[in-house]
Design brief:
By secondary structure, the chain is mostly helical. The protein is built from 5 helices and no strands.
């Protein structure tokens, strides 16, 4: 079994899916304008979530709080960034919403 599989069983969240999501978000955020405060906040929350995932034993509460924070920031963004809605939905499903 992989480490990610082990981590997934201890956190209750599919860490492989969260890691993939963080990678995709980081890639897509690079394409957005750097001037938006909401985009900056989203970048910071994604970075924090990525760091939490790098821990030897990611804490379930920290991952959950990170996902909630990213979800909250996404909910406040009112740009023409259609892809954000997809990320919001995917994170919502990860959180059981």
């Amino acid at each position: 079994m992989s480490n990610a599989g082990d981590k997934s069983s201890t956190t209750g969240v599919d860490l492989d899916a969260v890691s993939k999501l963080v990678h995709e978000l980081e890639r897509d955020l690079e394409k957005l304008q750097h001037g938006s405060g909401d985009v900056g906040a989203l970048r910071a929350e994604v970075r924090a979530l990525g760091q939490a995932l790098q821990a030897p034993a990611p804490e379930s509460d920290r991952i959950h709080r990170g996902l909630n924070a990213v979800h909250r920031v996404i909910a406040t963004i009112e740009d023409d960034v259609l892809i954000v809605a997809d990320y919001g939905a995917r994170i919502g499903r990860m959180l059981g919403m």
